[in-house]
Amino acid sequence: MANLLVTGGAGFIGGNFVHYWAEKHPDDTLIVLDCLTYAGNESTIAGVEKTELVIGDIRDTALVEKLLREREISTVVHFAAESHVDRSITGPDAFIDTNILGTNSLLKAARAVWLDEGSGRPHRFHHISTDEVYGSLGPEDPAFSETHQYQPNSPYSASKAASDHLVRAYHHTYGLEVTTSNCSNNYGPYQYPEKLIPLFLLNALHGRDLPIYGDGMNVRDWLHVVDHCRGIEACLNGGQPGETYNIGGGAELPNMAVIDHICAEVDRAFTRVDGLANRFPGAPAALGKPTASLKKFVTDRKGHDRRYAIDETKARSELNYAPSRGFEEGISQTLSWYLENEDWWLPLQST
């Protein structure tokens, strides 16, 4: 039995981790620390057994120290972050505050309670990061490994790179037991509809444009969020302190292929799900038209990275991690979840 502090546990990846861990480790207690910004949703983790939500800010070092000490927490799983690249371009300050200063606050609290107070308690601070810290790849470049040079190109990825360095420094300077995982693009249930897949799914259902940046050929590796949770579990169970592990989905696809998958899945859904045309009468598929008719090319994002790809050899060999589902299966499951959980995402349409 263990007590875990999950920062950002009411967000997309953190919320899925809470569901996953509670199911796989029912004897453990989860303390979720989340300040419930626009992307945090209390309903994401409502009803999860042995889970408590503490509404607070990771930059409140005293609060984090209190939780670590009073709840006898031995593991921090740090998801809390500003993560939308477009928002970082228009407002980078929030990314510096949360991703850098917030991570430093957590590390200070962990050092104070786990090391300076001399409790001797075994501990682990696991930091969730992104493949975006590595920069952009050319079409023929080898995939990112853990030794790839950091070359962040957006305020978001720069802030995550800085937080990665802080985590590493706290291990090498103070002896804090840390691990870091750098993941590829996540998708799945409970994702806030500003990211590509939920945005395009919901736009398709409502007959709104599908805005495609540039030529639509930017390449990403796609990772189902449950596979990501499995990878984090593997890091916590078998990762070596001070080490970094890349967690990928094994589905390197251009954005246009992802969008075409979404359009095809929506079209199929309207042929097999009773009443869908009545629920979403504005969808082209409800009118006998292809969802792909909504595709619209727009001006490319500033500094848009061309390609990401993950080399997960280290995670496979050292942690026995491998993704468990392909993209076609995952995108079909994701669409089904959104169709079955309109009560979760509908209130977010006005935020």
In short:
The protein has helices at 12-24, 61-70, 85-90, 93-116, 155-174, 196-206, 225-238, 255-272, 276-279, 313-319, 327-340, 342-345, and strands at residues 3-7, 29-34, 51-55, 75-78, 124-130, 178-183, 185-187, 210-213, 219-224, 244-247, 252-254, 295-298. The chain has 351 residues and is an alpha/beta fold. It has a domain at 3-187 and 225-248 and 306-324: NAD(P)-binding Rossmann-like Domain (Rossmann fold, 3-Layer(aba) Sandwich).
What can you see in these coordinates?
Belongs to the NAD(P)-dependent epimerase/dehydratase family. dTDP-glucose dehydratase subfamily. 41% of the residues lie in helices and 16% in strands. The chain is an alpha/beta fold and 351 residues long. It has a domain at 3-187 and 225-248 and 306-324: 3-Layer(aba) Sandwich (Rossmann fold), CATH 3.40.50. The strands form 3 sheets. The protein has a 7-stranded parallel sheet, with helices on both faces. Helix 1 links the parallel strand 1 (3-7) and strand 2 (29-34). It is globular and about 70 Å long.
Which strands sit side by side, in order, in the main sheet?
3-2-1-4-5-6-10
The CATH architecture of the domain at 3-187 and 225-248 and 306-324 is 3-Layer(aba) Sandwich
Low-confidence stretches: none
CATH fold description of the domain at 3-187 and 225-248 and 306-324: Rossmann fold
Total helical elements: 12
Core attributes:
7-stranded parallel beta sheet, single chain, 12 helices, alpha/beta, 16% strand, Rossmann fold, 351 residues, 3-stranded mixed beta sheet, globular, 12 strands
